[in-house]
């Protein structure tokens, strides 16, 4: 996998989109002045690969990576970086194996939204990291070495330094899996503790439910007997009700026959009445018709009078209208004459405008012909100027190329001269070093003998210290083992406390109504405060395990009482409970304490002295529980109670759980889930006390351990001091031995260097001669081109002056043309306006003429209407006398019909009286029948109610139940008494939890489920521990193998870069290989073996580079990005550094940011980063092979 290109847009100083193409098999160099944005390329690559640490991106917040704007550019709203890799072998994750290219993209918006994509498909950050896991690419990898990272590798702690080897060994993913497994192990352990605690609470609840199950079964048996007896009682009652109903039915039928006879007589009278009514109705209809005819006649007379008045008014209106039309006719004739005069003047004006328009159009044609000629001349001059400018640009380009070539050659000659001078200086310095090496050989031999004697003395001292350390270490190990056990016990106790607290907050063991109420209070603190709810009474009472059995009869009764502050809140509590449909709850108010009278005969210990009551319940609780006393003498309890029973309201309790009042005794074990709440509270106190004791033991043991550790550290320091002295002596001995070898090697190397310098000088001299020849050729070409450029510039100036003169003439013609066109437009507009005025006058004349014709027609119509109205008035006057005579005759006929109708009404009244007599007799009969019907209805309703009751309690029909009974011997009254007795027995059983069997079955099922869960959690714990063990074994194996390979390569690379010397990687002491750090021991040529922090800046840089390249030799990363890592190196070390990079570039892709010219020379592709605008980075590229071809 290699980087093909990177596209950056809106990232830091890259405001505009930039696309950088990299050499996949070679070295790409990035150069530019300080602050131009080179390192932003490194930041862009780190960012797109998923870097989340803002500090490593050189920012204060992640928003800082978005372009913040400049003097001329607004801030960007989004930063985007896309990194494209080649994937020829499909050596990435299996889902990308079919892709030849992989593009990783990251976007960040100012809103904070971040998007990752692989091949334009949105993915997670985890997917991006998995893609590059174990490839050396990433935040802790070795493929990107930014500014300052070289120093960090050397100066960092050994544990931090080992992350490079971890990344190369591919155990980063194992570390991630191990951390995930350890986290799951902790979560599983906590879950197991919680399940164990819940199982304990449920087991207690199971014991309490058994008693409720037995009571429910007994209740159901009684209920079955009661139901069967009730069926028989209801069926017998139904049988009796049916007999009574039949008797009532016979009486009702007799009364109904009598009613039918009376009804027949009544029907005869009613028939006669109906006949008379029909005649009266017909006669009334005839009278109505007569009246209607008379009314219509009078209405016609009135309409004739109204019509006559209307015609008179119409005559008057038409006369007035004719007068108005005469006036309007005169005005319209005058206006028509005026419009004719105006039209004659406008016609004359139009002729004048047409003549002027023709003159202007002729002048305009002449001016346009002149302007066309001038434009042609101007275009010809412009084309000539353009040709001259093209030639001038070509000459200028060639001149620039030759000038750049000459400048490049001058700079090259200067560099070659400097290199030749440096080689001469190096030759002289190497000769001096050779003389110094010969003198130091004898001194080294004398020092070696002295060091051997000192080393033997230190060996004896070290053997004694090792034996003392071994004993001290054994004692310290035993102390640490004890500490680990105590810490585990303390952690277990804390987990137990947390689990118990969690169960307590859920109020396990209490009724559902109490749980729901307290859950509502926890979820709504404001409502809790408003209602004054403090909690349950159980929250404020603690009872020791020894006396819990004795006080359980009282505690089981009161623990679920809800404590409130004020009794005034009871109405609001009632509303709250009703709204949430809660079952029965008991409440106590702290401002309403219980009044218990004092009793001097009280025996035993009052409960307030035994119970631990917390505030704010203390005052109320002491008063309430003062009526309960505990008699601890179990033997004399019954003797004492027989001689002197407690008086109300006082009660006695025994240590075995007996509760004695003045009226009853409660014996037996109390089964209540709420008692488990008190037990758990006491367990919390006990476990907290146990945890506190463990904490004290921990602190004491830690103090002892600290003392032992200090003693151990003292011995260790003494041993390390002795070992350090031994190592120093060994280093010094080795150094002396190496010095001799070094001086001999230095002599040979110096001779080789001198010969190499001579050869380099000859090559440089040849290159300088070639460069001078090329420089002379370039100088000659520059002179020729400058002369041609001067001539072209003079010609161009002449043509430009001619163009300006021609342009002025064209402008004058254009201005004259514009003036005539404006005049032509004005005249055209005037002509248009005049024509519009003429059209308007024509329209107004036509409208006036039309209106005159309409008025003439209207006047003729009015004359016709006047004549018609006069004729209609005459007709109405002639018909008026006939209508009055007809009205008189119709009034006489109507009076006769009204008299006959009154006579028939008197006959109808007599029949009505007879009908009322028959109706009275019928109503008396109906009343008696109604009374009997009511009794029948009562019997029927009773029967239906009994049938419904039977249908509600059984599926059997009443006939089936009666068939099973002996009806003759059955006593309904006695059966009712037995039924009431059974119901009394059911009621005396009190509240029975009928759902107890179902709850018990559900509880048993839950306990079985939790047990299986507990087993699963135990198995999961074992599996996780085994997984962590396997991960650690594989991680140690991989680390050991990779460490040995890298250490071997580190020694070789170090010797190559320093041309001698020794170095190695050393693991720090640790019991576990996975927690061991990696230290570096280095000995540059000619120096003693010493700590790496004592090396110079350049030596540190070379050492860090040696380590990085040693990793590359073992496991090459897809690419390597080095940001100014050669800055601390001198020229000689830069040459070695470049030689090493060149040799490694065949297996890896290298991208270097540098200011060093020697490093630039090894590149295949060079990118320059500049800032033409402040704050905006731009790039230019140079292909070295192409550049060499152009220079040649």
Detail the topology: elements first, then pairings.
Elements: E1 2-9, E2 18-21, E3 27-31, H1 38-48, E4 78-86, E5 101-109, E6 114-118, E7 121-123, H2 125-131, E8 144-145, H3 149-155, H4 158-169, H5 172-505, H6 512-523, H7 525-531, E9 533-536, E10 541-542, H8 545-558, E11 562-564, H9 570-579, E12 587-589, E13 605-606, H10 607-610, E14 612-613, H11 618-625, E15 628-631, H12 637-643, E16 651-654, E17 659-660, E18 665-666, H13 673-953, H14 958-963, H15 972-988, H16 996-1058, E19 1062-1067, E20 1078-1083, E21 1090-1091, H17 1097-1114, E22 1119-1123, H18 1131-1144, E23 1149-1153, H19 1157-1161, E24 1165-1173, E25 1176-1183, H20 1184-1191
Parallel strand pairs: 3-23, 3-24, 8-22, 11-12, 15-16, 22-23
Antiparallel strand pairs: 1-2, 1-4, 4-5, 5-6, 6-7, 9-11, 10-14, 13-15, 16-17, 17-18, 19-20, 20-21, 24-25
Overview of this structure, please?
The structure is a single chain. The chain is an alpha+beta fold and 1192 residues long. The chain is 71% helix and 10% strand. The chain has 20 helices and 25 strands. The protein has a six-stranded antiparallel beta sheet. Strands 8-22-23-3-24-25 form a six-stranded mixed beta sheet. A hairpin with a 4-residue loop joins strand 5 and strand 6.
C-alpha-based Rg, rounded: 61 Å
The end-to-end span amounts to: 35 Å
Total helical segments: 20
The count of strands amounts to 25
For the largest sheet, list the strands in their spatial order: 2-1-4-5-6-7
What is the molecular shape?
A: flat
Largest sheet descriptor: 6 strands, antiparallel
Low-confidence parts, pLDDT < 50 over ≥5 residues?
Answer: none
- Structural class assignment: alpha+beta
**Quaternary state, please?**
single chain
Overall helicity: over 70%
Provide mean pLDDT, rounded. 76
What portion of the residues fall into strands of 2 or more residues?
Answer: 5-15%
């Amino acid at each position: 996998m290699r980087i093909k290109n990177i596209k950056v847009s809106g990232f830091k100083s890259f405001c505009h989109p930039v696309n950088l193409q990299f050499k996949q098999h070679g070295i790409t160099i990035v150069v530019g002045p300080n602050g131009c944005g080179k390192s932003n390329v490194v930041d862009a690559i780190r960012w797109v690969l998923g870097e989340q640490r803002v500090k490593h991106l050189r920012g204060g917040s992640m928003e800082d990576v978005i372009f913040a704007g400049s003097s001329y550019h607004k801030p960007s709203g989004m930063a985007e970086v896309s990194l494209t890799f080649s994937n020829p072998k499909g050596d990435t994750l299996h889902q990308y194996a079919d892709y030849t290219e992989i593009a990783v993209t990251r976007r960040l918006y100012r809103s904070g939204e971040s998007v990752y994509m692989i091949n334009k498909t949105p993915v997670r950050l985890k997917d991006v990291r998995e893609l590059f896991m174990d490839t050396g690419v990433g935040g802790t990898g070795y493929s990107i070495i930014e500014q300052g990272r070289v120093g960090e590798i050397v100066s960092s702690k050994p544990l931090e330094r080992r992350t490079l080897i971890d990344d190369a060994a591919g155990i980063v993913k194992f570390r991630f899996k191990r951390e995930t497994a350890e986290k799951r192990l902790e979560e599983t352990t906590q879950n197991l503790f919680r399940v164990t605690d819940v199982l304990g609470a449920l087991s207690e609840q199971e014991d309490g439910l058994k008693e409720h199950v037995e009571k429910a079964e007994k209740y159901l048996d009684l209920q079955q007997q009661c139901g069967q007896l009730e069926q028989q009682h209801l069926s017998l009652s139904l049988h009796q009700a049916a007999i009574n109903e039949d008797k009532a039915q016979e009486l009702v039928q007799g009364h109904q026959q009598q009613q039918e006879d009376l009804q027949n007589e009544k029907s005869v009278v009613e028939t006669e009445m109906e006949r008379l009514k029909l005649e009266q109705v017909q006669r009334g209809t005839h009278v109505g018709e007569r009246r209607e005819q008379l009314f219509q006649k009078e209405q016609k007379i009135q309409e004739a009078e109204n019509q006559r008045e209307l015609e008179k008014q119409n005559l008057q209106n038409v006369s007035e209208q004719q007068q108005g039309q005469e006036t309007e006719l005169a005005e319209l004739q005058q206006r028509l004459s005026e419009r004719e005069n105006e039209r004659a003047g406008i016609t004359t004006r139009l002729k004048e405008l047409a003549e002027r328009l023709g003159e202007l159009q002729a002048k305009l044609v002449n001016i346009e012909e002149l302007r066309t000629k001038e434009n042609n001349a101007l275009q010809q001059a412009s084309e000539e100027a353009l040709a001259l400018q093209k030639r001038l640009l070509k000459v200028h380009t060639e001149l620039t190329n030759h000038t750049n070539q000459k400048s490049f050659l001058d700079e090259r000659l200067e560099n070659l001269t400097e290199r030749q001078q440096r080689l001469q200086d190096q030759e002289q310095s190497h000769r001096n070093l050779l003389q110094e090496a010969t003198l130091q050989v004898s001194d080294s031999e004398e020092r070696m003998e002295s060091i051997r004697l000192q080393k033997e003395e230190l060996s004896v001292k070290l053997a004694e210290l090792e034996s003392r350390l071994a004993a001290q270490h054994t004692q310290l190990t035993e102390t640490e083992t004890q500490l680990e056990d105590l810490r585990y016990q303390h952690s277990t106790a804390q987990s137990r406390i947390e689990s118990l607290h969690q169960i307590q907050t859920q109020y396990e063991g209490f009724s559902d109504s109490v749980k729901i109420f307290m859950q509502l209070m926890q979820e709504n603190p404001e409502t809790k405060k408003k209602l004054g709810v403090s909690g349950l009474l159980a929250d404020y009472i603690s009872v020791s395990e020894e006396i819990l059995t004795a006080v359980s009869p009282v505690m089981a009764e009161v623990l679920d009482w809800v404590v409130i502050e004020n009794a005034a809140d009871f109405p609001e509590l009632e509303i709250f409970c009703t709204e949430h449909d809660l079952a029965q709850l008991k409440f106590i108010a702290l401002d309403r304490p219980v009044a218990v009278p004092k009793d001097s005969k009280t025996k035993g210990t009052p409960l307030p002295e035994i119970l631990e009551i917390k505030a704010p319940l203390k005052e109320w609780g002491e008063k309430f529980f003062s009526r309960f006393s505990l008699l601890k003498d179990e033997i004399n309890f019954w003797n004492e109670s027989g001689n002197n029973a407690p008086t109300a309201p006082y009660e006695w309790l025994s240590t075995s759980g007996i509760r004695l009042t003045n009226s009853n005794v409660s014996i037996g074990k109390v089964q209540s889930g709420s008692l488990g709440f008190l037990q758990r509270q006491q367990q919390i106190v006990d476990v907290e006390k146990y945890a506190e004791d463990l904490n004290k033991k921990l602190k004491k043991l830690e103090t002892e351990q600290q003392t032992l550790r200090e003693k151990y550290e003292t011995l260790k320091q003494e041993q390390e001091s002795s070992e350090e002295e031994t190592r120093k002596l060994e280093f010094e001995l080795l150094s002396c031995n190496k010095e001799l070898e070094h001086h001999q090697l230095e002599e040979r190397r110096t001779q080789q260097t001198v010969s190499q310098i001579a050869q380099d000088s000859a090559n440089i001299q040849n290159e300088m001669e070639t460069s001078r020849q090329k420089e002379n050729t370039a100088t000659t070409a520059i002179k020729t081109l400058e002369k041609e450029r001067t001539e072209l510039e003079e010609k161009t100036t002449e043509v430009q002056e001619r163009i300006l003169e021609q342009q002025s003439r064209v402008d004058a013609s254009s201005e004259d043309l514009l003036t005539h066109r404006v005049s032509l437009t004005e005249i055209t507009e005037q002509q248009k306006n005049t024509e519009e005025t003429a059209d308007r006058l024509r329209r107004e004349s036509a409208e006036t003429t039309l209106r005159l014709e309409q008025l003439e027609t209207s006047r003729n119509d009015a004359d016709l209407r006047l004549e018609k109205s006069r004729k209609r008035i005459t007709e109405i006057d002639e018909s008026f006398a006939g209508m009055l005579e007809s009205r008189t005759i119709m009034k006489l006929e109507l009076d006769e019909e009204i008299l006959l109708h009154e006579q028939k009404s008197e006959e109808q009244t007599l029949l009505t009286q007879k009908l009322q007599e028959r109706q009275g007799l019928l109503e008396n009969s109906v009343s008696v029948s109604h009374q009997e019907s009511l009794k029948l209805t009562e019997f029927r309703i009773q029967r239906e109610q009994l049938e419904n009751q039977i249908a509600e309690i059984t599926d059997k029909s009443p006939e089936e139940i009666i068939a099973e009974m002996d009806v003759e011997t059955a006593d309904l009254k006695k059966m009712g008494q037995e039924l009431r007795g059974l119901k009394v027995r059911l009621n005396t059983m009190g509240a029975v939890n009928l759902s107890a069997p179902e709850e018990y079955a559900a509880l048993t099922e839950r306990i079985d489920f939790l047990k299986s869960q507990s087993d699963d959690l135990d198995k999961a714990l074992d599996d996780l521990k085994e997984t962590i063990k396997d991960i650690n074994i594989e991680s140690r194996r991989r680390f050991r193998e990779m460490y040995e390979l890298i250490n071997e390569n580190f020694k070789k690379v170090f010797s190559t870069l320093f041309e001698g010397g020794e170095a190695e990687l050393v693991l720090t002491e640790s019991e576990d290989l996975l927690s061991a750090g990696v230290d570096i021991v280095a000995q540059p040529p000619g120096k003693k073996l010493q700590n790496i922090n004592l090396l110079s800046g350049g030596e540190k840089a070379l050492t860090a580079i040696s380590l990085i390249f040693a990793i590359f030799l073992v496991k090459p990363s897809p690419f390597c990005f080095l940001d100014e890592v050669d800055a601390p190196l001198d020229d000689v070390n830069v040459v070695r550094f470049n030689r090493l990079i060149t040799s490694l570039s065949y297996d890896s892709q290298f991208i270097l940011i540098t200011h060093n010219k020697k490093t630039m020379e090894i590149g295949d592709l060079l990118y320059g980063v500049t800032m033409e605008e402040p704050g905006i980075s731009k790039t230019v590229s140079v292909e070295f092979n192409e550049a060499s071809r152009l220079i040649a």
